[in-house]
Amino acid sequence: MGFDEGSIILNSENETYFAGQTIFGKLVFEQDKVKTFRGIYVKMKGYCKVHWTTSHTEEINNRRHTRTDNHDSYEEYFSRKMFLLGGESGEYHLQPGKHELPFDCPIPANCPSSFEGEYGHVRYEIKIVVDRAFKLDQEKKRQIRVIAPLDLNFDPYCKEPMQFDIEDTYCCCCMSSGSSATVVKLPASGYCPGQTIPIELSCSNQGGVEIERILLAIQKRVTYHAVNIPGTKHEESMVLEMKKGPVPGESTRSWMVDMEVPAIDVYNMGPCRFIDIEYDFMVTVIPGGCHSNSEDRRSIRIGTVPLMGYQDNIPNPLQDQMPQVMPIMNQPPPTVRPFTNAYPNQNSPYPNQNSPYPNQNSPYTSPNPPYPSPNPVPYPSNTPQSNQPYPGINQPYPTGQNPPYPVVSPTQTTLNPGSYPQPSPRVSPYPDRANSPMLKTGTFGFVPNVPVPSLPPGINVPYPLTPPSNPYATATAPEPATPDDDQKSPLVPKEPTAMPYPPYNPEYMDKMEQNK
């Protein structure tokens, strides 16, 4: 008993899912004693891997050396890891008993189909790991299959008819032996497994060489692309083949052939970068004797959803391989919440009275809604005193001779003040000059009509004889001496400075000159 004897149970009986579905499962095991580990986690991923090898032999110094190159490609479509118990660190103690650990993982809708080939594959895996400290981890793996639907209605090429025209000329010993013309017609270029392809086949043999048989076939071609040591690998296989003939010389044969597409796996490899799967419809004319064959091929689409109106009522032969998803196991039902109005009340901010939301209930459970409830309308009311930032229920711009913006005029009257924004009363940020007691203007504080005395004629305005006193105090501290200023000589010799202005008292200056 324990993890090794446990099992992974999925909600799909055949372990198949469509791209875009969600995987629901659970890990079931029974423990008979306490188990200690760091955690139990499930990891789900989808990936593509391409690999093949090539050998090269070369001769160096008379010795043959063989080199092997590994051509690889790898990409992941999704990867998810979730802990069912415990975590990345620490210890978790699991008690004895039966344990069921549910998990789920959505599959992205843009994933390619599961595929297994000779040189590569696309796989989707579920791995559950018991992470144990200082011990080997315990693992369980389960591989699932993903089907990516391929709808032929989205590809215009599938609706186009297909026609082959093969003409041959036969010669023997430089002598003409006649010619043949083969025509093959198909109504469309895309089909699904289980559908029947009605084929019109006509061969006109105008020579002496017999046409032994005409082959009609569907061929599958898989191409692998490697990124590490770039290279390409091809894999071909025959899906279906039919034969008609012979056509004797100088004769014409026509057939209506019904070719049923077999129940083959359909792969949608569009999202995969390294694996391409294509189908070709081939026509081969095989003449008798030593003449060479003539072959022509066209691409044909094989999908899961048939073209509308063309054999779309035929049952799918692969129905038993489609996903068989059971109801979700041990999953709580989803919480159903009514679709409510996103606004707190019945007044909508839109012009009309029909709210774009179905009801008037608030989707918020708290008593404080995100929008203020006192003002049900997010715009101001249509009153002349309110400054409306947005227009009301009327036209956003006035019509007629009314200007789009209000005119600053005290005589202007508005017929409908709520039609468009109105300016607020113009209030000056400065105090009123007439009513302000702090501003002394006019004649207050002044004596009008006072005579101003004038100077006698010929006398100028007197100026002070001494310069005005310095409002700043004179520095009393001695000027700091510069180190070594006695030894230093000025960079530029000082010259006596001439007086830039004439002396203020010329008589005093003349006396000074005479005393010298």
Question: How would you characterize the overall build of this protein?
Answer:
This protein is 2% helix and 39% strand. Among the domains are: 3-58 and 66-148, Immunoglobulin-like, CATH 2.60.40.640; 153-317, Sandwich (Immunoglobulin-like), CATH 2.60.40.640. With 516 residues, the protein is mostly beta strands. The chain is extended, with a radius of gyration of 50 Å. Strands 2, 5, 6, 9, 10 and 11 form a six-stranded mixed beta sheet that branches. The chain has a five-stranded mixed beta sheet with strand order 14-20-19-16-17, with no helix packed on it. Residues 328-434, 464-516 are annotated as: Disordered. Residues 366-381 have a biased composition (Pro residues). It comes from Papilio xuthus. Residues 343-365 have a biased composition (Low complexity).
Averaged pLDDT: 76
Number of E strands = 20
Given as residue ranges, the uncertain stretches (5+ residues, pLDDT < 50) are: 329-422, 436-446
Briefly note the structural class of the backbone: mainly beta
| CATH class membership of the domain at 153-317 | Mainly Beta
Q: What is the CA-CA span between the terminal residues?
A: 134 Å
